[in-house]
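Notes from the 1:1 (GR / supervisor)

We went over the backlog. Supervisor wanted to see one worked example end to end before approving the batch request, so GR pasted a single chain during the call. The sequence is below; no edits were made to it. Supervisor asked that the structure be written out right there so they could see what the output format looks like.
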Amino acid sequence: MGNALKDKGDLESAIHSYKNALKIKPNYVEAHSNLSFPHLLQGRVEKGFNFYGWRLKLPKLTATPARNNLIWDGEKSLNGKHFVIYEEQGLEDMIQFCRYLPLLKQKGADITSKVKPKLHALLQTIGSKSWFVINFSEEN
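Structure output shown during the call:
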């Protein structure tokens, strides 16, 4: 119900629906995760991203090998940190956010990208091979 209301644009009703689902099943991961979207769409960024973190508990993401790595906590120094960038939610998001990879490198991070072969050529245009490693494994 919450998804239908969100898609219809009735964001307050969607929030109410997700909250009702959580009253019935407090650890309902999908409801927590989906609750992020109406908040984000309303500009409640902090609240929305707090709920968005629940997506990491979804079965399709807990099965992702890269999920076992630590997630950046926002600390300022990235010297000696190694980021593995992987395609979590589709090609569009990867294309949109890959522009930030050079910024990570400027702050001292090492970066490895684990993406589908069709993105390899694109990602090679944003960084030199001396700092940006692309995982060419066929399991992607």
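Supervisor's comment: DSSP finds nine helices and three strands in the chain.
Batch request approved.
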